[in-house]
Amino acid sequence: MKNYKYKLEPYNGSKSRHLCPLCNDVKKTFTRYIDSITGQYVSHLVGKCNREVNCNYHYPPSKYFKDNKIEYNINIPKYINRQVDIVQKRSRIPNEIFDQSLKGYENNKLVEFMCKRIDVQKTVEAIEKYKIGTSKKWVGSTVFWQIDESNSIRTGKIMLYNPINGKRVKEPYNHITWVHSELGYNDYQVNQCLFGQHLIIGNDLPIAIVESEKTAVIASTYLKSHLWLATGGLNNLKTSNFYKLQNRNITLFPDLNSYDKWFTTMAMLSKIANVSISSLLEERATDEEKSMGLDIADYLIKNK
């Protein structure tokens, strides 16, 4: 698979995110494209806003160069490709860090919520299956490890949940960060994969794709006919994350209010795998549920 000369800048703290040229939201929601070789920004206008529902600004390098009549080549030469692959392979979380997180479940707020609302045994099975960890970043916070099909730990997402309603804690600030950032790793090359990707080897079940890691974990305790994976965000529903799922049967389960976005992306993913999209939530949800933006896990818990 080719590496491209221009890519969205990997997350490296607030300095790697910017104000969007279109929506100009007070939060830094804009990711700029960089030159993979030099690390330089293409332009302050060239990038993508992560407010995909409310803004959807995306100005790729190809259009920028075309608009400004600049010749360019998007592919990195093969000899540089090999160097890029080497750098990406080096950016992994050590196994000892991962192992240290596999405890403290008596304080883990998400585990507490699942035990109360679902079932203790099913929760234990889900924890072991998805290799969920506990972090000391915030008391009771959860680590969702991104482990690929080779059992290589690419990174981990740390989030804090409310043990009563199972929602992410967003006040007084959004409690979400990355393991590699908290470890202070410099020049860490983030190369994300689907959450749960380590489960695809030797598993022939049809695959269900959702957005959030929590949704995948909870849905797996209800609907065992599918292997549940998560993109970890709207931005990660992209072809590069689906090459390991070639020719598999995949059903997308978008959150309410994200159906149209996922439906549009489905055409690209269908070139790689046998992809369909579920309209279950869109058809059954009430107006109130739609306004809340529920996902399949919320629906399953509510209607069990």
Explained architecture:
This protein is of the alpha/beta class. The chain folds into 3 domains: 6-89, no CATH class; 91-182, no CATH class; 197-302, Dna Topoisomerase Vi A Subunit, Chain: A, domain 2 (3-Layer(aba) Sandwich), CATH 3.40.1360. The chain has helices spanning 61-67, 78-90, 95-101, 109-117, 120-130, 179-182, 213-222, 259-269, 280-284, 287-292, 296-302; strands spanning 6-8, 30-35, 47-49, 58-59, 133-135, 141-147, 153-159, 176-178, 207-210, 227-230, 249-252, 274-277. The longest helix has 13 residues, at 78-90. The chain is globular and about 60 Å long.
Summary?
The chain is an alpha/beta fold.
Binned strand content: 15-25%
> What is the helical fraction, as a range of percent?
25-40%
Question: Could you say what the CATH topology of the largest domain is called?
Answer: Dna Topoisomerase Vi A Subunit, Chain: A, domain 2
N- to C-terminal separation? 43 Å
Tally of domains: 3
**Which CATH top level class of the largest domain fits?**
Alpha Beta
Quaternary structure state of the chains depicted:
single chain
Q: Which series of helices and strands comes N to C?
A: EEEEHHHHHEEEEHEHEEHEHHH
Find the structural class using helix and strand composition.
Answer: alpha/beta
Instruction: Count the E strands.
Output: 12
Major sheet: arrangement of strands: 1-2-3-4
Global Rg: 20 Å
| Overall geometry | globular
Please describe the biggest sheet, giving its number of strands, its sense, and whether it closes into a barrel. Answer: 4 strands, antiparallel
Poorly predicted tracts of residues? 76-89
In DSSP terms (H or I, runs of 4 or more residues), the helix count works out at 11
- Mean pLDDT across residues: 87
CATH architect. name of the largest domain? 3-Layer(aba) Sandwich
